[in-house]
Amino acid sequence: MVYVAVGLVSFLLGYGVCFKWFKKDIVEGKPIAFNEGVYVASKAKIEP
Questions:
Q1: 9, part of any domain
Q2: How many domains does one find in the chain?
Q3: Which of 27, 43, 44, 45 is the most exposed place for a label (fewest CB within 10 A)?
């Protein structure tokens, strides 16, 4: 159970750091290039 908690915290921290770094690109919808793949980040409004 500890491993699950540590993994979840690590994931949230990593996601937060990634969002902080790429926030401008996410808002503007610019493509973000990692190793070999190119990802287009989009700030989409999720409708319920």
A1: no
A2: 1
A3: 45
